Model the fold of this input.
Amino acid sequence: MGDQGTPHRVVDQVLDGLVGGAQGVVSGIGGGLTGAGEMVQRGLDQPWKMMNGPEQPMRAVDRLLDGTVHAATVAINQGVLGSLKAEGEAVQSALDHPSQQVGIPPGLGGTLARSPLAMGRFPRLPFGR
Done:
């Protein structure tokens, strides 16, 4: 969407990277909590397994907590952080409008890169050297 070479799009890509990183951290924390809970549950399951019994009753609480952690992870990643990404895209789209209509500002890889100054060609001044 939009003009990928405009300066505000470059900033948007950096911010999207930060949001993606935050989503990864949230997912990592959720996975760590779930993994730690599973380790505790395995320890609590040992006496029940030694008596050839079914899973111990605390497994119900573990499943409830796992679901709560997953719900919180989804709510943060898709809710809060997802909303930030969506709002950022709306702002970028609004900033793209002038670029799409009249070509201002020029894309970083387009007109600006082909300008005489970027190619090392400088106009001759009528005075001096």
Notes: Helices lie at 7-50, 58-102.
